[in-house]
Amino acid sequence: MCTLLCVVLAAAAAAALLGPAQANQQYNQLDQNYRVGVDIVLQQLQSFPGVQLHFHFFRTIDKSDFESGFGMSSIFHHFHLKPTRCAKGTSVAQSCPFRNDRPIMDCVVCYKVFQHVIETAPKPYIHCIQRPKLTPEMRATRLDHCRRMTYTSGAPTLLAVSGPT
Question: Which residues form the signal peptide (predicted)?
Answer without folding.
Answer: 1-23
